[in-house]
Automatic annotation (TrEMBL):
The keyword ATP-binding does not apply. This is protein-histidine N-methyltransferase. Keywords: Cytoplasm, Methyltransferase, Nucleus, S-adenosyl-L-methionine, Transferase. GO terms for cellular component: cytoplasm; nucleus. Residues 214-237 are annotated as: Disordered. InterPro entries: Methyltransf_16, SAM-dependent_MTases_sf. Belongs to the methyltransferase superfamily. METTL18 family. GO terms for biological process: methylation. SUPFAM superfamilies: S-adenosyl-L-methionine-dependent methyltransferases (SSF53335).
Amino acid sequence: MSFKFDFDIDDRADDDHALLGITTGPSQHLKSASSEPAEAPCTELSLDHLLATLPPALSYATLPVPETDIALARRDLFDARFQVLAQADPSEPARAADGSTSSDALAFLDAPSDLLPRVYEGGLKTWECALDLAAHVHRLGWPSFVGKRVIEVGCGTAIPSLYVLHTLFSGPPPADTDGTQETHVHLQDYNASVLELVTFPNIFLAWYTSPAASPHRPSLDPNSPAGETDDDSSPGELTLTPALVRAFADALSTHRIRLRFFAGGWSSLYPSQLLPAPSPRQYDLVLTAETVYRADGLRPLVRVLREASLGDSSVPSVDQHGMDVENNEGEQGQGLCLVAAKVVYFGVGGGVVEFIRAVEDGQAGLEQGRVEKVWEHSTGVGRAILRVRWR
Protein backbone atom coordinates (compact mmCIF):
# COMPACT_ATOMS: atom_id res chain seq x y z
CA MET A 1 0.00 0.00 0.00
CA SER A 2 1.16 3.53 -0.66
CA PHE A 3 0.39 7.08 0.35
CA LYS A 4 -0.47 10.21 -1.58
CA PHE A 5 -0.09 13.79 -0.40
CA ASP A 6 -2.55 15.21 -2.98
CA PHE A 7 -0.95 18.66 -3.07
CA ASP A 8 0.12 19.73 -6.55
CA ILE A 9 2.25 22.76 -7.21
CA ASP A 10 0.93 23.68 -10.65
CA ASP A 11 -0.94 22.36 -13.65
CA ARG A 12 2.24 21.32 -15.41
CA ALA A 13 3.11 19.06 -12.49
CA ASP A 14 -0.30 17.42 -12.89
CA ASP A 15 0.40 16.91 -16.58
CA ASP A 16 3.79 15.37 -15.80
CA HIS A 17 2.26 12.96 -13.32
CA ALA A 18 -0.46 11.99 -15.76
CA LEU A 19 2.24 11.09 -18.27
CA LEU A 20 3.99 9.06 -15.57
CA GLY A 21 0.83 7.26 -14.63
CA ILE A 22 0.79 8.93 -11.20
CA THR A 23 -2.74 9.76 -10.13
CA THR A 24 -4.05 12.46 -7.83
CA GLY A 25 -6.87 10.46 -6.32
CA PRO A 26 -7.84 10.00 -2.66
CA SER A 27 -5.06 9.36 -0.16
CA GLN A 28 -4.24 5.82 0.83
CA HIS A 29 -2.82 4.75 4.15
CA LEU A 30 0.74 3.59 4.72
CA LYS A 31 1.59 0.00 5.41
CA SER A 32 2.46 -0.81 8.97
CA ALA A 33 6.08 -0.22 9.92
CA SER A 34 6.66 -3.96 10.43
CA SER A 35 5.91 -4.66 6.76
CA GLU A 36 8.25 -1.99 5.40
CA PRO A 37 11.66 -2.91 3.97
CA ALA A 38 14.81 -2.07 5.90
CA GLU A 39 16.12 1.48 5.54
CA ALA A 40 18.74 1.88 2.83
CA PRO A 41 22.21 2.84 4.14
CA CYS A 42 23.47 6.28 3.17
CA THR A 43 26.15 6.25 0.47
CA GLU A 44 27.85 8.97 -1.56
CA LEU A 45 27.38 9.45 -5.30
CA SER A 46 30.46 10.97 -6.89
CA LEU A 47 30.32 13.98 -9.18
CA ASP A 48 31.95 11.92 -11.93
CA HIS A 49 29.23 9.28 -11.60
CA LEU A 50 26.46 11.87 -11.87
CA LEU A 51 28.10 13.55 -14.85
CA ALA A 52 28.23 10.15 -16.54
CA THR A 53 24.51 9.57 -15.93
CA LEU A 54 23.42 12.77 -17.67
CA PRO A 55 21.27 12.02 -20.74
CA PRO A 56 22.02 13.34 -24.25
CA ALA A 57 19.32 16.00 -23.83
CA LEU A 58 17.15 17.54 -21.13
CA SER A 59 13.58 18.77 -21.51
CA TYR A 60 12.70 21.33 -18.87
CA ALA A 61 10.19 23.86 -17.61
CA THR A 62 10.73 26.83 -15.32
CA LEU A 63 9.31 27.63 -11.90
CA PRO A 64 9.21 31.24 -10.71
CA VAL A 65 10.43 31.69 -7.15
CA PRO A 66 7.80 33.75 -5.29
CA GLU A 67 8.78 37.33 -4.45
CA THR A 68 11.81 37.21 -6.76
CA ASP A 69 12.53 37.74 -10.44
CA ILE A 70 14.21 34.33 -10.62
CA ALA A 71 12.76 31.38 -12.53
CA LEU A 72 14.43 28.06 -11.77
CA ALA A 73 14.68 25.41 -14.46
CA ARG A 74 13.32 21.99 -13.54
CA ARG A 75 13.59 18.82 -15.59
CA ASP A 76 10.29 17.50 -16.91
CA LEU A 77 9.22 14.24 -15.30
CA PHE A 78 8.20 12.74 -18.63
CA ASP A 79 11.77 13.36 -19.77
CA ALA A 80 13.13 11.44 -16.78
CA ARG A 81 10.78 8.57 -17.57
CA PHE A 82 11.92 8.57 -21.19
CA GLN A 83 15.54 8.29 -20.02
CA VAL A 84 14.72 5.30 -17.82
CA LEU A 85 12.85 3.59 -20.65
CA ALA A 86 15.70 4.26 -23.07
CA GLN A 87 18.22 2.73 -20.67
CA ALA A 88 16.11 -0.28 -19.72
CA ASP A 89 17.59 -3.61 -20.79
CA PRO A 90 15.87 -6.69 -19.35
CA SER A 91 18.95 -8.84 -19.95
CA GLU A 92 21.37 -6.43 -18.25
CA PRO A 93 19.53 -3.70 -16.33
CA ALA A 94 21.41 -0.51 -15.55
CA ARG A 95 22.01 0.05 -11.86
CA ALA A 96 21.90 3.28 -9.88
CA ALA A 97 24.59 4.05 -7.34
CA ASP A 98 22.55 2.42 -4.55
CA GLY A 99 22.19 -0.83 -6.50
CA SER A 100 18.64 -0.21 -7.71
CA THR A 101 17.95 -1.01 -11.34
CA SER A 102 16.28 0.93 -14.12
CA SER A 103 13.28 -1.35 -13.60
CA ASP A 104 13.14 -0.24 -9.96
CA ALA A 105 13.24 3.42 -11.02
CA LEU A 106 10.48 2.85 -13.56
CA ALA A 107 8.38 1.10 -10.91
CA PHE A 108 8.17 4.17 -8.70
CA LEU A 109 7.92 6.49 -11.68
CA ASP A 110 4.80 4.57 -12.68
CA ALA A 111 3.47 3.92 -9.17
CA PRO A 112 0.06 5.53 -8.46
CA SER A 113 1.39 7.17 -5.29
CA ASP A 114 3.64 9.90 -3.96
CA LEU A 115 5.28 7.69 -1.34
CA LEU A 116 6.33 4.07 -1.01
CA PRO A 117 7.93 3.93 2.46
CA ARG A 118 11.65 3.09 2.35
CA VAL A 119 11.35 2.42 -1.37
CA TYR A 120 10.49 5.81 -2.88
CA GLU A 121 10.11 8.90 -0.68
CA GLY A 122 8.51 11.34 -3.12
CA GLY A 123 11.65 13.03 -4.45
CA LEU A 124 10.64 13.21 -8.11
CA LYS A 125 7.91 15.73 -7.49
CA THR A 126 8.34 19.44 -6.71
CA TRP A 127 6.39 20.20 -3.54
CA GLU A 128 4.93 23.56 -2.57
CA CYS A 129 7.02 24.00 0.55
CA ALA A 130 10.24 23.73 -1.45
CA LEU A 131 9.30 26.94 -3.27
CA ASP A 132 8.26 28.51 0.03
CA LEU A 133 11.71 27.75 1.40
CA ALA A 134 13.53 29.11 -1.65
CA ALA A 135 11.56 32.35 -1.33
CA HIS A 136 12.38 32.57 2.37
CA VAL A 137 16.09 32.07 1.72
CA HIS A 138 15.80 34.99 -0.70
CA ARG A 139 14.11 37.08 2.00
CA LEU A 140 17.02 36.46 4.35
CA GLY A 141 18.93 38.98 2.28
CA TRP A 142 22.32 37.33 2.62
CA PRO A 143 24.72 39.44 0.53
CA SER A 144 26.44 36.32 -0.82
CA PHE A 145 26.57 32.55 -0.47
CA VAL A 146 30.25 32.49 -1.45
CA GLY A 147 32.25 30.59 1.15
CA LYS A 148 29.12 29.23 2.85
CA ARG A 149 28.42 25.60 3.71
CA VAL A 150 24.90 24.52 2.76
CA ILE A 151 23.13 21.20 3.13
CA GLU A 152 19.66 20.25 1.93
CA VAL A 153 18.22 17.17 3.63
CA GLY A 154 15.62 15.20 1.68
CA CYS A 155 16.30 17.36 -1.36
CA GLY A 156 14.26 15.74 -4.16
CA THR A 157 14.18 18.27 -7.00
CA ALA A 158 16.34 20.54 -4.79
CA ILE A 159 14.51 23.83 -5.36
CA PRO A 160 16.06 25.68 -2.36
CA SER A 161 19.56 24.52 -3.33
CA LEU A 162 18.91 25.50 -6.94
CA TYR A 163 18.17 29.03 -5.72
CA VAL A 164 21.49 29.09 -3.84
CA LEU A 165 23.43 27.75 -6.83
CA HIS A 166 21.72 30.04 -9.33
CA THR A 167 22.69 32.97 -7.09
CA LEU A 168 26.28 31.76 -6.92
CA PHE A 169 26.49 31.32 -10.70
CA SER A 170 24.97 34.77 -11.18
CA GLY A 171 27.87 36.45 -9.37
CA PRO A 172 31.59 36.69 -10.12
CA PRO A 173 33.90 33.84 -9.11
CA PRO A 174 35.74 34.36 -5.81
CA ALA A 175 39.11 36.04 -6.11
CA ASP A 176 40.94 34.21 -3.31
CA THR A 177 43.70 31.74 -4.04
CA ASP A 178 43.93 29.98 -0.67
CA GLY A 179 40.58 28.16 -0.75
CA THR A 180 38.99 30.18 2.05
CA GLN A 181 36.07 31.06 -0.21
CA GLU A 182 35.19 27.53 -1.20
CA THR A 183 31.43 27.02 -1.16
CA HIS A 184 30.15 23.61 -0.11
CA VAL A 185 26.68 22.51 -1.22
CA HIS A 186 25.64 19.03 -0.10
CA LEU A 187 22.40 17.29 -1.05
CA GLN A 188 20.77 14.15 0.34
CA ASP A 189 17.79 12.15 -0.89
CA TYR A 190 16.62 8.67 -0.02
CA ASN A 191 16.81 7.49 -3.63
CA ALA A 192 19.93 7.46 -5.78
CA SER A 193 17.66 7.42 -8.83
CA VAL A 194 16.12 10.73 -7.73
CA LEU A 195 19.59 12.29 -7.50
CA GLU A 196 20.47 10.93 -10.94
CA LEU A 197 17.19 11.67 -12.72
CA VAL A 198 16.16 15.06 -11.32
CA THR A 199 18.46 16.55 -8.65
CA PHE A 200 21.67 16.63 -10.66
CA PRO A 201 20.05 17.52 -14.01
CA ASN A 202 18.32 20.41 -12.22
CA ILE A 203 21.67 21.62 -10.89
CA PHE A 204 23.08 21.47 -14.41
CA LEU A 205 20.12 23.55 -15.58
CA ALA A 206 20.63 26.04 -12.74
CA TRP A 207 24.08 26.71 -14.16
CA TYR A 208 22.95 26.72 -17.79
CA THR A 209 20.23 29.32 -17.19
CA SER A 210 22.57 31.57 -15.16
CA PRO A 211 24.88 34.36 -16.37
CA ALA A 212 27.86 32.05 -15.84
CA ALA A 213 26.76 29.96 -18.82
CA SER A 214 25.92 32.82 -21.17
CA PRO A 215 29.02 32.21 -23.36
CA HIS A 216 27.78 28.66 -23.92
CA ARG A 217 24.21 29.53 -24.91
CA PRO A 218 23.51 30.07 -28.60
CA SER A 219 22.94 33.65 -29.64
CA LEU A 220 19.63 34.51 -31.22
CA ASP A 221 19.36 34.63 -34.93
CA PRO A 222 18.58 38.24 -35.91
CA ASN A 223 15.54 36.88 -37.78
CA SER A 224 14.09 35.19 -34.67
CA PRO A 225 10.47 36.09 -33.88
CA ALA A 226 9.99 39.13 -31.69
CA GLY A 227 9.77 38.44 -27.99
CA GLU A 228 12.23 35.54 -27.96
CA THR A 229 15.26 35.76 -25.71
CA ASP A 230 18.56 33.92 -25.50
CA ASP A 231 18.52 33.35 -21.73
CA ASP A 232 16.74 29.97 -21.80
CA SER A 233 14.49 31.03 -18.94
CA SER A 234 11.47 29.64 -20.79
CA PRO A 235 10.62 25.94 -21.25
CA GLY A 236 12.71 24.13 -23.77
CA GLU A 237 15.07 21.30 -24.59
CA LEU A 238 18.81 21.37 -24.11
CA THR A 239 21.29 19.17 -25.94
CA LEU A 240 24.13 18.13 -23.64
CA THR A 241 27.28 18.05 -25.73
CA PRO A 242 30.59 16.90 -24.22
CA ALA A 243 31.84 20.48 -24.49
CA LEU A 244 28.84 21.78 -22.55
CA VAL A 245 29.28 19.20 -19.80
CA ARG A 246 32.97 20.14 -19.53
CA ALA A 247 32.00 23.81 -19.31
CA PHE A 248 29.69 23.01 -16.39
CA ALA A 249 32.45 21.14 -14.56
CA ASP A 250 34.83 24.02 -15.24
CA ALA A 251 32.28 26.50 -13.85
CA LEU A 252 32.09 24.53 -10.60
CA SER A 253 35.86 24.75 -10.33
CA THR A 254 36.03 28.44 -11.28
CA HIS A 255 33.35 29.37 -8.76
CA ARG A 256 34.92 27.04 -6.16
CA ILE A 257 31.69 25.19 -5.60
CA ARG A 258 32.14 21.76 -4.03
CA LEU A 259 29.10 19.56 -4.61
CA ARG A 260 28.49 16.29 -2.77
CA PHE A 261 25.51 13.95 -3.04
CA PHE A 262 24.25 11.29 -0.67
CA ALA A 263 21.55 8.64 -1.14
CA GLY A 264 19.96 6.60 1.63
CA GLY A 265 18.30 6.91 5.01
CA TRP A 266 18.96 9.45 7.73
CA SER A 267 19.95 6.88 10.35
CA SER A 268 23.35 6.46 8.68
CA LEU A 269 23.88 10.09 7.60
CA TYR A 270 26.39 11.97 9.76
CA PRO A 271 26.71 15.57 8.53
CA SER A 272 29.58 16.50 10.86
CA GLN A 273 31.79 14.04 8.96
CA LEU A 274 31.08 15.52 5.54
CA LEU A 275 32.84 18.88 5.80
CA PRO A 276 36.61 19.37 5.85
CA ALA A 277 38.42 20.44 9.00
CA PRO A 278 39.04 22.67 10.90
CA SER A 279 36.42 21.92 13.49
CA PRO A 280 33.67 22.51 14.31
CA ARG A 281 32.47 21.11 11.02
CA GLN A 282 29.04 22.69 10.88
CA TYR A 283 26.93 24.10 8.06
CA ASP A 284 26.03 27.76 7.75
CA LEU A 285 22.63 26.95 6.24
CA VAL A 286 20.65 23.76 6.90
CA LEU A 287 17.55 23.34 4.73
CA THR A 288 14.79 20.78 4.49
CA ALA A 289 11.31 20.88 2.95
CA GLU A 290 8.39 18.44 3.11
CA THR A 291 10.34 15.91 5.20
CA VAL A 292 8.26 15.82 8.41
CA TYR A 293 5.35 13.86 6.95
CA ARG A 294 5.96 10.64 8.88
CA ALA A 295 6.02 10.60 12.66
CA ASP A 296 8.38 7.62 12.76
CA GLY A 297 10.94 9.51 10.69
CA LEU A 298 11.16 12.56 12.95
CA ARG A 299 13.76 11.29 15.42
CA PRO A 300 16.49 10.54 12.84
CA LEU A 301 15.63 13.74 10.96
CA VAL A 302 16.00 15.84 14.11
CA ARG A 303 19.38 14.23 14.82
CA VAL A 304 20.64 14.97 11.30
CA LEU A 305 19.45 18.60 11.37
CA ARG A 306 20.95 19.15 14.82
CA GLU A 307 24.30 17.62 13.90
CA ALA A 308 24.45 19.60 10.66
CA SER A 309 23.77 22.82 12.55
CA LEU A 310 26.16 22.22 15.46
CA GLY A 311 28.93 20.27 13.75
CA ASP A 312 31.28 18.07 15.73
CA SER A 313 31.77 20.61 18.51
CA SER A 314 30.55 19.81 21.98
CA VAL A 315 26.94 20.83 22.44
CA PRO A 316 26.97 24.44 23.70
CA SER A 317 24.91 25.50 26.65
CA VAL A 318 22.20 28.12 26.39
CA ASP A 319 24.42 30.91 27.73
CA GLN A 320 27.12 30.07 25.17
CA HIS A 321 24.70 30.58 22.30
CA GLY A 322 24.52 34.32 22.79
CA MET A 323 22.14 36.53 20.88
CA ASP A 324 21.71 36.62 17.14
CA VAL A 325 24.00 39.08 15.41
CA GLU A 326 21.12 39.62 13.02
CA ASN A 327 17.71 38.04 12.85
CA ASN A 328 18.58 36.27 9.61
CA GLU A 329 21.74 34.57 10.87
CA GLY A 330 22.34 31.48 12.94
CA GLU A 331 23.12 31.88 16.60
CA GLN A 332 26.72 31.81 17.75
CA GLY A 333 28.07 28.29 17.51
CA GLN A 334 25.47 26.96 15.09
CA GLY A 335 24.14 27.34 11.57
CA LEU A 336 20.75 28.62 10.48
CA CYS A 337 18.32 25.69 10.33
CA LEU A 338 15.09 26.12 8.36
CA VAL A 339 12.31 23.55 7.98
CA ALA A 340 9.43 24.05 5.52
CA ALA A 341 6.39 21.86 6.00
CA LYS A 342 2.65 21.52 5.73
CA VAL A 343 0.83 21.97 9.01
CA VAL A 344 -0.75 18.51 8.69
CA TYR A 345 -0.01 15.50 6.50
CA PHE A 346 -3.33 13.71 6.59
CA GLY A 347 -3.25 9.99 7.28
CA VAL A 348 0.48 9.79 8.03
CA GLY A 349 0.89 11.25 11.51
CA GLY A 350 3.45 13.94 10.74
CA GLY A 351 3.27 17.69 10.51
CA VAL A 352 4.42 20.91 12.13
CA VAL A 353 3.12 20.13 15.63
CA GLU A 354 4.73 16.69 15.64
CA PHE A 355 8.06 18.12 14.49
CA ILE A 356 8.02 20.84 17.15
CA ARG A 357 7.27 18.20 19.77
CA ALA A 358 10.16 16.04 18.53
CA VAL A 359 12.56 18.97 18.87
CA GLU A 360 11.32 20.56 22.08
CA ASP A 361 10.50 17.37 23.98
CA GLY A 362 13.51 15.51 22.65
CA GLN A 363 14.58 12.08 23.81
CA ALA A 364 13.67 11.06 27.35
CA GLY A 365 11.91 14.40 27.76
CA LEU A 366 15.09 16.45 27.29
CA GLU A 367 14.67 19.59 25.21
CA GLN A 368 16.97 19.61 22.18
CA GLY A 369 16.07 23.02 20.87
CA ARG A 370 13.49 25.73 20.36
CA VAL A 371 11.32 26.17 17.27
CA GLU A 372 10.10 29.51 15.96
CA LYS A 373 7.55 29.90 13.17
CA VAL A 374 9.06 32.50 10.83
CA TRP A 375 6.54 32.28 7.97
CA GLU A 376 3.02 30.95 7.60
CA HIS A 377 0.46 30.41 4.85
CA SER A 378 -3.00 29.77 6.26
CA THR A 379 -5.18 29.69 3.13
CA GLY A 380 -6.18 26.21 2.06
CA VAL A 381 -3.72 23.59 3.27
CA GLY A 382 -1.63 25.34 5.91
CA ARG A 383 2.11 25.64 5.35
CA ALA A 384 4.86 27.05 7.52
CA ILE A 385 8.58 27.67 7.71
CA LEU A 386 10.20 26.89 11.05
CA ARG A 387 13.52 28.08 12.40
CA VAL A 388 15.21 25.72 14.85
CA ARG A 389 17.66 26.94 17.49
CA TRP A 390 19.47 23.97 18.96
CA ARG A 391 20.65 23.56 22.54
